[in-house]
Amino acid sequence: MRTELKRPWPTVWTGSAFSCGGSQLWFPDKNFRYCGCGVIACADTLLYLRGAGELSMEEYLRYVNSLRRYFPLIPRLGIDGLRLSMGLNSHLRGSGLRFRAEWCMSGQRFWDRVERMLADDLPVIVSIGPSFPCVWSRERLPLYRKTENGYAEAARTKAHFLTVIALDETWMRVSSWGMEFYIERRAYGEYMRRKGALFTNLLFLKRS
Question: Is the pTM for the entire model greater than 0.85?
Fold first, then answer.
């Protein structure tokens, strides 16, 4: 069974094609390019909630820059899920959007929450946390692209936020770096169990 958002995900014209959501790599600020993924996930989610469809690059950059004051980034470290939810709530209070965000710290109801949010037409911001407490570990979670022959590994990442836009029994379809990727549910669940649910979890968004 597949659960997915009901409307098209925001896209940005890059000059040659439309993206799948936004990317921190489009910004000149070196620290933001390195660790601005959480801000991008929040910006894309807010654009979806506002019904945005196709945007120009100029429109997208301007919108993200208007949000950055709510999400102060620690150089080279970025922002954690709790502070991400606090920043999003701070913005939501004056935005006219009637939602409340909460960073989840338990993995027990993770998949139920993802499915519930998507069924309620709400994007799901998830994190692939750092290796904790062994932060120097090089272990990363694989991301896949869909091909004519199935799914092919396209990247590996950790300490990264991205946004789930669809879910089935095997895969999460996600938006990251302006592209569409797939994450194997089994692999994500195992990663969460090994690294802990404090940093590998989701931002639960509900109507207030």
Answer: yes
